[in-house]
Every structure is written in C-alpha cells, then in structure tokens.
C-alpha cells in the first residue's frame, strides 16, 4: 500500500464554504465546548483565527449525560456563533440534535455536527442528508467501523455527499482515561475498498478522545502522523472557567504550541497546513 | 440485603393500560421484530395471547444499521398493530425514533419504546417525557448504569414517571455472541439507593441480548431468577420467514415452552405470572 | 434444541475424589478467599459442610495485582487446607500458579485451580495436563469462548480430561461493577458442537463475577437457571475480617440462605443438588 | 506540561548490552515472529542491521492460542538467535514463558520478553525480577494502566529495575481489527507522578497492535509522534512464508521505508534515532 496514493486517489473532498477538507492541507477546527456569551465566542474566535484555525466550533445544543447539567444556550447561541464566524472569517460548526432544528441551524452555520450519542439516530441522519450542508459525523463510543460507515451511508443515500468522519474515542478499560482514542481507524478505513467507505475525510477529536488537556498535543501529532485530515480541538481562554468539559480544554498558549508543532510535522508526512 | 423487600419497597409500578409492571407478577411482552402485514401481526397476537403474553411488541419504524435494509412499514403499520391489540386484548408497544412521531404513535399504542441506539437521544427522551404514556427505555450497548439512569431521568424530569428499564446486552468480546447480556444489572440497580434510581421496573430482552434463538429460554429463566420484572421476546410463526432478526426469533412451540418454564420458576423466586 | 438433552448427552463428568461434577446434581464449592489459619479454615469448613457444600476452596498462593498485597500463606497453607478437608469430608481445591508447585499441590488437594490471570499460561496448563488431578479452568477476563476452549485443549492434549470450566466475569463498562458476569457463556458453550468443546462441565463464580456480596445470591440463582453445573462461592465467618476480597465474600447466614434457594430452584430446571 | 521535559526528567534508561532505551534516541527492535532456521534468522538479522534496527527479536517459545499450532523451535532456537546477534552486532530479545527457562534463556539473549498472556503471571515476573537482564513487559490485552504498572512492580520489587513497557493493543470492538492500539497510554503513563510509574521507557508493537501489515507504518509514525521510546516490528523476507503472524509481518522494503520515515519524523518531535 502506498498510503498517500490511496489517500489522494480516494478522498472525497468536502467544501466547508471555501475551506476544503480532504486535500493535502490539514484543517484545524477549534473552539469552546459551549457558546457561553457573545464576548466569549468572539474573543476565542479571534485568538483561534490568529493561531491558525480554519473552522470555529461551539456547542449551542449540548447533549449532557444528566438533564440537570448546563444544556447550552440553545438557538439563542446560533447568532452569536455566526457573528464570531463572520467577524473573523472562520467557518462555523455546531452540533444539531433535533431533526426539527436542522433547517434553522443550517441558516447559521457552515457545517453540521452529529455527535457520538446520535451516530445511529437515523431520523436525524436522514434530515441532515436532505440538506446540502457539510456534515461532521462523530463515531459512536461503541460503534464498529462497519456501523459507522453505514451511518454515513444514511446521509449519503439522501443525496448529501459532503461527509467528514470524526474519531473521538471508544469505550475503554476505564482506568485513568475515559475513552480509548482509536487512531488505527484512520489508516484502516482509508485502506478498505471492499466496503461502503466512500473516501470520506477523517479528522480526530483528541479532546473528547482523551479527556485530558495534557494529552491533546501528543495525540494531535499522532493523529496527523497516521493520516488524519484534520483536528477538532476544545479551546477556551480560561479552561477552568468553561461551563463544560473544562478538564479536556486547552488555553491559547497550549493551542498556539499545538498548531506550531502540527506545522512542523505536516511536511514530514507529505501534508501541508491551511494556516 | 433482603432482595424481595428492596424490590417490593422501591419498585415504581408502571400501568400499561391495566397491565401492571413492577408488581410480584412477571409480565411477558412478545411479538415479531417487525409488523409485516395485518395477517402476520394478528395471527401472532392470537397465539401469544393464548400462550400467556400480556403485551404485544411489533416494530413499525425499524432502526437498521444499513439504510438499504428493510425499514419497517412506517406509520402504515400502526393501525395494524392497534387492531391486533384490540382483537386480542393484548396491550401494545412499538419503538418510536422521531420526536415528530411521538404524538401519532401515542394515539395507537399503549407503551412507547426507546431503542438502544437512541438511549441518549435527548430530544426524543424529552418528547416522550412530555406524554403520559409508559416508556420502555432500552439500555445503550455501551451505556454505564449511571448513563442509563440519567437517560431515564430526562424522561422523569419532564414529568412522565411511567418508565420501565430494559437490559438488552452490551458490547462484548464478540466471539460467538454479538452482545453480552448483563443480568447483574438487575440486582445491582435494584440495590442502589444513593443514586437517581427511582424504583423503575427492569425487564430483559434475551432476543437482542443473545442474538440466538437457542439461548432465549435459558437466559429468560436466568433473568427471572435474578429479579427481572418481565421479558421482551421476539416471536414469529416462522422465524426463518421473518424480515428481520430471524436468527434470534423463536416460534410458537418454543414460546409456549418458555412461558411454561417461567410459570414453574416464578414461585421459587417469590413471583407470580400474569398469565 | 432440547437444552437438557444436550447437556446430558455431552457432559464429560469430572470426578473430584468421589464428588461428580457434570451430572444432574449441582455441586457447590465454597470457602474463604485465602487460607488464613488452621482455626479459620477448619471452622469455615465445618459450617460449609453443614450448609451443604461439597468442595472447600481456599487460596494459599494468591495472585494479587500488587506485589505489596497479602500474597497468601504459600505452601504452608496446604496442610491446613488438607486437614480441613479430611476432618469434614469436603473435597478441596486451591489455585496453583507455578508449574514447579504442581506436584506438591497435587499431594494436598483434590482439584487444581487455574486462575483467570493464568488462563493462557501454557506452561502451567501443560503441567497440570500431565497430572490426573481434576482441573478447574477459570476464564480470562478478556478471553473469547474460542480462546478459553483452546486453553482447556492444552490440558486435554496432555492427557488430562478432568476439566471443569468456570465463568468468573469479563471486562466490563466498569461503572458500579468491576466485571460483567457472562452467563450466556453457559448455554452457548453447551450448544456448540462444531468446535473443540468436549462436554466440559461449567460452573460459575459469582463472587469474582460481581464483586459485591449482595449480588451473589441472585446471580447464583441465575447461573443455575441457565444451566450451570455448579457454583464457586467465597464465604467467611466474618467477611469484613477477610484478608482479601472482603467486599465479595458472604457470611454463613447468607450462604445458608443461598443454598436453601438453590435447593428450591434445582428441580424447576430438572436438576438436583448434592446436599 | 512540557512533554519532553517530563520525558527527559523521569525516564529510567535501560541498557540492553550497550543499546540504551529511554534516551532521546528512538530504538527499533525488529525480526521475525518465530526463529525458523539458522538461515532464516541470520539473513533477516543482516537485512535489519543494514536497515537500522538495533535489537533483533525472534520467538523460540511461542505462546499460541491452540496447542496444535506451531509452538516454536524451543530451546533449540536460542543458539540460532544468539549467532545471528553475534554476527550482526544486533542485541537480541526473545519471549520466556516458563520460570524454569529464565536462567537458560538469560545465557543466550540480551533482553527477556514477557508476553501479553503472561503479564499477570506473577511467578514468571518474580523470576525475571531476580535476574539483572533487561525485561520488556508487554501489556495484557485487557490490562488497565494500574494493573500493568503493578505487574512491572513485581519485577522491580525483586531488584531488577531494567524494565521497558510495551503497548501492543487492547481488546477492541473487533470489527476489521483484532485489537485497538492504545497510543494514549504513552503520554498518559509518562504524565502520571502520583503512582507507581517509575519512569519506564515505553515502546510500541504496531504489528500485534493492528494485526495488519498495511497499518504498521502509519501507526509506527503515530507512536513516535506521541512520545514512544521505540518500536517492536515483525519483519520477514517473505511474510507469506512466515510460520506465524504472516498477516502482520512486513518485508524488507516496507521495513526500510518505515525506518526512513521514522528518521525524518524523529527530529520534529525532538528525538533522534540510533541508526
């Protein structure tokens, strides 16, 4: 197998409003776990833009294990995210959980995210499949590759071929780390041709995949080293103030360090960076 | 611990249109994986009623791993299921996948089912939480007890306290069997008091939990032996003709044998059967 | 499948010095996690004999996760265990960890135990395979059925066909319980004929399989209900004083209750008890 | 956290007869799954030496799931491995399974390997702990970090502090790949200070960790990118002829490509290579 040839031959490039995912250029998506306020999302967006991110993430509908945890700003957060994107030139991505929200969310963001818990929410998959928006499909925490690709196929079958896969950790032996980041998924899925893999770009979320801020930089490098097309990183100006996921969120300095290391690493694995 | 005292003290009895779940009486829910035709569901319902089932299951919206597999009859199946229930006196249960269908489905069936794949589909949980219909909440294939109970809490927090938990197997070492039926969940959850467990009845689905017809009878007995409040069984007059789940579906003779064994077993564990 | 016919036809009865495992009669093995003193093992043995156990367990070589935990009395414990067996008429079983100890241990006990951690310690398996002593082979915590049966085959291939399998829980989602007791293993393994399953009796260890004293009684009943040929239970006169495994050890009263429930349950599943 | 500082500060350098593991220099261990003949091991050793390996691996005692699979040459293979090492200047490593073989094996090789199946074979751990030979301790397929480090402690407690950890994949969702290579283990273990982690170097075995030849190169790069101190690779002049593990064995050309990529990658993550 010539890894890069396979990658080049089969990757189905996804266009997020001008930012291409699946080319030789690595795409970095970053932002806070949740959109908390206009000030918060805008100031983070500016810092990320300067550091080299291309896409701004920020949750407005937050799927939380407990109904009593902070649930996000809801649709009130959408214009805040859009403003931050518009003012910085970053593309935007947010998770959609309710099929009835797909049309509304699509008006505000450049890319729709399907979270792990909803990887087999077929109603939702079909609904985003009927739009033309790029869709980031996170892997379920116990989903086999076959199940994950079949979930992507639910979107594809409706006509929307703008699909990006995102590895974010699977169930683990739960000692020290909450999930096991399965990086082998990247070269494995990219190598299979006798399946319904349709050349989707694959990115990695080391924030959820490790659950620990200190591991995000080394595992980001590992992800790029084995062929990931991009990264999805949780960043906050003060992680300890973050309303959710504070343990796995990095600050600006750590993010700048990470981007600088990815820039050094990219050419070694025949990649570039967008930044 | 006096097991039965705990059970009696804490179980939150759920009333499925007159069939009580969570009393000393074991409730048997059974039926085909999918509603396939009026003839099919009605003839199966009659056989199940005669054998001793109380609740008729039958999928109309089928969550299938592949978009190209049989997806169920959809809403056209609802009146067929209702007719079969009305003609036999069986209560009815079916899975709902789309929050927009909850109101419609609620008009046709006595109990709403949330499937494993949607255990953390919070949009859907909230929607069924706003009805007064009993809800059967299946455990996700990688859900911890804590996550499962928190998902139940999403329903409870909306005001609907008619919740039944259903163990259906978790991810396994995948050799021989697709899932590992976690029967310890039953006495464990019934024993915890320092949590958000609200005394929900717990039933077991050995059909999905083992994936093999031959294992359904022994694992049904095991489920009752360790405290399950009921069973959910896939039955078809000709399992090999079933449009889905044929390997884990039993026929009438096997179902009659199973019910007869449960009747013998119940008094040994201080239970009765409804039949 | 007629479950009992299969069981009767294929079970390879193992004779532990007169106590037969694999007949219709359920065999109960019980005792402390560790042999702690002559007084301790003898007084427990007497209580267990009276309650209805047939085989006395007691560890002398203890495989502990940390080298700094209590490691058992070592070979000094062997005569204590033998005396307790001789005085009560109970057969004895203990774990052997070192191939160099097999000959010595064989002089003192009636049955050799291979623990989970050593299920694929082929050196040890071959060594016990060269004796004529019955061997209880515990399943590894991540062993597939295929791997488990192949480990038994290492013993069988050396000429020792006196093998008993013991399910003791596999790796789990680790929330609340340390392991997941996989009871489906019993009817599944007993149903496979196209494999190297040679009709081994299968018993269940709910003490390690659940890790919680309160779950031992319900899961013991479940094990017998789905076809187990026996049980292996940790009992101590004062579990809180036990030098190891105190959380999963039951006292005499709980053990008496358990045996009395198994006696009631046995005939319902066409079994008897030795007691 | 400054990753490299932590690594530099805490790593306990292990000296394999002059080849240091745990410095800035990445160490590559490679060789066939099994020593098959003098010609085979010598010709492979020469090719590996030329390509840049420092340590020659080759199994003589092979732990195979089935007793009927090829079990290795046994002790007859030891002089063949030693000759290959002597003639090429490569250090040698082989797995030892029987505590009674430790002394013999120590006379022939430079480093002892404890395989996954024996990670909690405490008898064997203590025995190698009583030698002064470096020990490579592979992680068990279901071992938590805590359990793994405690197993290392069994060796340490006997006085042998020359311990190298080796990540080789853990139980997975078993779809496509047999194991899940847990690369997060490397930065996680290197970051913990409130534990019994004693600064052991950590290397990665992508051959067993992925089970597929095509994944070895990308996952080797990922391992080095996140901080691994070395690699353990299965190489054969004709993988399809290999008596064991042929699917996960690479040929000379692939190995040369891999080493050349590691050489390019090393300086990007502040490492060098021995070659």
N-end to C-end Cα span of chain A: 29 Å
Order of helices and strands of chain A: HEEEHEHEHEHEHEEEHEHHEHE
**Dominant shape of chain A:** globular
Radius of gyration of chain A: 17 Å
**Number of H- or I-type helical stretches of chain A:** 10
* Biggest interface: A-D, 46 and 46 residues
Largest β sheet strand count, sense and barrel closure of chain A? 8 strands, parallel, barrel
Oligomer: homotetramer
Please state how the strands of the largest beta sheet of chain A are arranged side by side: 3-4-5-6-7-8-11-12
Uncertain spans of chain A: 1-9
Can you count the beta strands of chain A?
13
Q: What percent of residues of chain A adopt helix (DSSP H or I)?
A: 25-40%
Beta percentage of chain A is 15-25%
Provide mean pLDDT of chain A, rounded: 94
Look at the helices and sheets of chain A and give the structural class.
Answer: alpha/beta
Tell me about this structure.
Residues 1-9 of chain A have low confidence and may be disordered. Chain A has helices at residues 3-10, 38-51, 77-88, 102-108, 122-129, 145-157, 185-191, 206-210, 213-225, 252-265; strands at 14-16, 19-21, 25-31, 55-57, 91-95, 111-114, 135-138, 163-167, 170-171, 179-180, 202-204, 230-234, 272-273. The longest helix of chain A has 14 residues, at 38-51. The first copy, chain A, is α/β, with parallel strands linked by helices. Chain A is built from 10 helices and 13 strands. Chains in contact: A-B, A-C, A-D, B-C, B-D, C-D. At the A-D interface, helix 6, strand 9, helix 7, helix 9 and helix 10 of A face helix 6, strand 9, helix 7, helix 9 and helix 10 of D.
